[in-house]
Amino acid sequence: MTPAARLAATVALLSAMEDQPRRPADAVANEFFRARRYIGSSDRRAVSERAWAVVRERLRLDWRLRKLGAEPTARLLVAAQMVLMGGGSLQGVVAAFSEQGPYAEAPLDAEERRVLAALRPPLVRAEMPENLRLNLPDWVMPGFQARFGDALPAAAEAMAEAAPLDLRANLLKTTRDGALAALAAEGIPATPTPFSPWGLRIADRRPILASKAFRDGLVEIQDEGSQLIALLADARPGMRVADYCAGAAGKTLAMAASMNNRGRITACDVSAPRLTGAAQRLRRAGVDNAETHLLEAGDRWAKRRAAQFDRVLVDAPCTGTGTWRRNPDARIRTGEFDLNELVTKQRAILDRAASLVRPGGKLVYATCSVLPEEDEAQVQNLLERRPEFRVVPLQEAWKQSLAALGSVVDTAPGEGDFMALAPHSHGTDGFFCAVLERTEVAVPRSDTTTRASSDPAVT
Ligand SMILES: C[S@@+](CC[C@H](N)C(=O)[O-])C[C@H]1O[C@@H](n2cnc3c(N)ncnc32)[C@H](O)[C@@H]1O
Question: What is the pTM of this model?
Answer without folding.
Answer: 0.92
